[in-house]
């Protein structure tokens, strides 16, 4: 394998771990209000790792165009791309498993779309996309 392949595989593994970690942080904060014990217990699913692992591939393909655009525009694009990947990924997991791991929780929100994504998570998706861009650009 060439060095470039090793680097891309490393980036994919890194973003899989970072994405799962961000998700655990996010769910611990968003579920805090309903947690009577205030344990800040976050959660995720390893099924989501491949979705997060696609992040550097997206940046390798679209970064040259996106990185020169205004920050707020890029954040909006990232949120939309994350929703697209999440919708398709959760739909595929629904087909494979009978339900996506987050579906039950998503269906409780009036902001859900088919139980696969939540529109009220836009600010988090916006910020996560920009954070991922910062990390990607700093390791490149």
What does this structure look like?
The protein has 6 helices and 2 strands; from the N terminus they run αααααββα. The chain starts with a helix and ends with a helix. 21% of the residues are buried. It has one domain (3-139). With 140 residues, it is mainly α. It is globular, with a radius of gyration of 16 Å.
What's the layout of helices and strands?
Blueprint: H1 3-30, H2 49-53, H3 55-66, H4 71-97, H5 103-107, E1 112-113, E2 117-118, H6 122-139
Antiparallel strand pairs: 1-2
Helix pairs in contact: 1-6, 4-6
Let me know the largest β-sheet.
2 strands, antiparallel
The run of helices and strands is HHHHHEEH
- Nearest-integer average pLDDT: 94
The count of strands amounts to 2
Beta fraction: under 5%
Integer count of domains: 1
Low-confidence stretches are none
Structural class comes to mainly alpha
Strand line-up of the largest beta sheet: 1-2
Helix content: 55-70%
- CA radius of gyration is 16 Å
- Shape by Cα distribution: globular
List the total number of helices: 6
Oligomer: single chain
What is the terminal-to-terminal distance?
A: 19 Å
């Amino acid at each position: 394998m060439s060095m470039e392949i090793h680097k891309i595989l490393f980036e994919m593994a890194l973003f899989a771990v970072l994405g799962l970690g961000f998700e655990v942080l996010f769910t611990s904060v968003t579920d805090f209000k309903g947690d009577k014990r205030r344990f800040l217990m976050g959660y995720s699913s390893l099924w989501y790792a491949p979705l997060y692992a696609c992040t550097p591939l997206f940046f390798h393909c679209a970064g040259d165009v996106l990185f020169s655009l205004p920050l707020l525009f890029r954040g909006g694009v990232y949120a939309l791309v994350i929703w697209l990947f999440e919708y398709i990924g959760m739909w595929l997991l629904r087909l494979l498993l009978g339900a996506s791991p987050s579906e039950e929780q998503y269906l409780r929100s009036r902001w859900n779309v088919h139980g696969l994504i939540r529109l009220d998570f836009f600010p988090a998706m916006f910020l996560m996309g920009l954070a991922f861009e910062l990390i990607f650009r700093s390791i490149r």
